[in-house]
Amino acid sequence: MKNRLSKIYLLAILSTFLLMGSSCQDEFLKKPLGSDLNVDSIFSTSSKVESAIARAYGLSLASGIPMSPWDHNNTYMLMGASLPMISGEINPIKYNWTDGWRVARSGLMADNGSGKTMSDDGFGTNYRAIRHDYLVIENIENVSDMSDTEKAQVIAEMKVLIAYRYLEMFKRYGGVPIVNQTLSVADEIMIPRATLEETLNHIVDICDDVVTILPDSYTRTWTGRATKGMALAVKAEALLYASRPLFNASSPYMDLGEYNNLICFGNQDNSRWQKAIDASLSVIEWAESNGYHIIDTNNPLDDYGTAVSTPGNAEVLVAYKYQFQGWGSPLHRFYNPHTEDGGSNGMSFIQLSQYYKADGDNQEWTDETVSPFSEYVTKMEEMEPRLKASVAGAGMDSWNNPNDIYWSSQVLANASTYNGRGGTEGCARRVKFWYKAGTREWFEFPIYRLAEFYLNLAEAYNELGQSGKSLEYLNVIRDRAGLPDVVETNQDELRKIIQREWAIEFFEENHRLHDIKHWKLDAIDKGIIGGEKYTFKFEYKNGSYGEVVDDYISYAREVAFSGYWSDKQFLNPFPQIEINKGYLVQNPGY
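Above: the chain's sequence. Below: its structure in token form.
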């Protein structure tokens, strides 16, 4: 297994195990520094401090990553779910006990009636991660066998992890409390929210501070640690979100009175787009100088499949690295179609309809009219390579693992047998992240892929009216996908094309949910998050479960369920239990 024996991987095993459901671990994180941790012992030698560093990565990079399905206290994120379940990318049909199923139908809640926040992250875990990062920063000086240069680098790593976690909160909440140290029971722990501007500046200042300290690369032994590229990427993403309409406006999405500056900048300023351009150009310049590049060998299926699936490929700048730990491993459970969870929720119709045919034209899909299943097969075969690298058609073998029985339709159909197999495929079965994976049961979730910064530039240049520059960067991604160049120059029409490209390129990579909110899409309540959510209904031959094409008779589009949307959901609620303490201002509408 590639790189399996490297130190960072072995340490990640420890970090992932600690993240995945130990109740005593949860209690430790809630206790003040020194209550049950021998800091002097851990921060005595470099070999001992490695576990603390690995744990910092595991905690900090887990934002948006599914955690244990048994975590009923929302300690880390959605219980038994993933972000694409509420972004409209996949339809959560089975398991009504999961947060994904309930949020999609009932919306985000500050308190669901049982003291539990229904949100797409566990608010408190942001500060548990940040606290652990500061724990390392404040104690690394005590390590006896590390040089000052090594200690400075570790501090810079912890700081960029802190910046990343603040960015994740920035997207979800707007302005948040800023903590600059570990807090003990003697400290003031009820810290009010910073303004949106202050939160953004905090992220950018950290990235600017550490970018000259972090290395460009590591030895193979330490693959996976933060580089200069990560600092540049976090800054660029923060500035992009600061430019989009949700924050970059004269008035907020809902009025918060004297606290509007927590959720809105109070003016629409195009210079924010230029800052996003400059930051994204810096990412690409750094990447190209350090061996990273868009993978494009004129084999679109192989190129995209490699970019999103192959560990350590030349396009991924930062990944969440973990090791398979059996049935309970969350990435395995929720993204692998060979499991009940991964195989139970298929691609939604609205996501399928984003993709182009291989020739760049739009596909014409059936409506409620019942059509022969042979038509479905023909239409799926006509689709662009990125779809074929992301799903397996109903009754069809996976394109992304050709001639591999493990990825045959029979095996995929039989993988999720709980409550029966038929009807669980949605519009297609999800297989992204497993390109030519064989029987490998782990993957590295891509946090920053270089393609993101090309689309950042396409979006930002278009918003500044520079369609030529926008097309230059957009068509790099289109070319890799094997699609013809876009030539549209009308700003509104080009914006739609770019937003569609985001939806296709980053399917299930945790971009879509916050993209559509920060764009304030007009159709957000009309089938994207809210409104009727469509899927395909397949008719099977008697006794069949969709194992092969011959098992199917027909297909038609039907409503899977009605999704919930309210404008208050543009940002997440803070937990009501924290609001009741009197130090936080709740986001509007909750």
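The first helix runs from residue 7 to 19.
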